[in-house]
Amino acid sequence: MAVQYLTHPSLIPTYSEEVLEQLIQHAKHDDYTLPLAYFYTVQPTIQAPRAIESLYVGIARTSVTEAFYFSRGQADVARRKMFEMLISLVLHSHPSDRTAARAVELVNLPLDLEEEDWFEFFLTKGEGRAFKRARDALIMRRIGTGKVSEALTLDFNGGKTGGGLSWAMMQDALQEG
């Protein structure tokens, strides 16, 4: 009902950034349906970096793919920051089936060469290198994009995957493969 009132054609969206930020800030249980409905209905021009970041977090927590394509519409500096934020939001989440599905979605994104470099840099030399799942994401991305020999150059020691399989076992299977 609130979105119906906020998006009424007779209203001038004077405070659209503030409305959007408040809707995102007060979203319950990571349900960003209301703020995203408002954003897509009103289609406000958003200038404030804080409002853009809030919107992006809402989009990223809702859909990895949608957040990825949203970031592509931004200037290069903001685009890279958003891309890194997307990686962080996905890999730094509490382990669950949803997190695993989102991680698979992340590593299967159609990255261009520049984004591929950002992905590698962020997870090997940037802030993302400290994430527990950084190496896993790199390995999965390299294997998924056909760069098996590059995937084999990563350190496979430690870490277990589902079903008791380790990355070292995967490495052995790939080398025999």
Features:
elongated; about 180 residues; about 0% strand; mainly alpha
Average pLDDT over all residues: 84
Number of continuous helical runs: 11
Overall geometry comes to: elongated
Q: How much of the residues is beta strand, in percent?
A: under 5%
What structural category arises from helix and sheet content? mainly alpha
- Can you give the helix content as a percent range? 55-70%
Order of helical and strand elements? HHHHHHHHHHH
Low-confidence stretches: none
| Computed Rg | 19 Å
Q: How many extended strands?
A: 0
Cα distance spanning the termini: 57 Å
Q: Main β-sheet, in a few words?
A: none
Furnish the topology, listing elements before pairings:
Elements: H1 2-6, H2 16-25, H3 33-42, H4 49-62, H5 64-72, H6 76-91, H7 97-107, H8 113-124, H9 134-144, H10 148-151, H11 167-176
Helix pairs in contact: 2-3, 2-4, 3-4, 4-5, 4-6, 5-6, 6-7, 6-8, 7-9, 8-9
Task: Characterise the protein shown here.
With 177 residues, this protein is an all-alpha fold. Helix content is 63%, strand content 0%. The protein has 11 helices and no strands. The protein has helices spanning 2-6, 16-25, 33-42, 49-62, 64-72, 76-91, 97-107, 113-124, 134-144, 148-151, 167-176. Helix 7 crosses helix 9. The longest helix is centred in the middle third of the chain and has 16 residues, at 76-91. It is elongated, with a radius of gyration of 19 Å.
What is this entry, summarized?
This protein has 177 residues and is mainly alpha-helical.
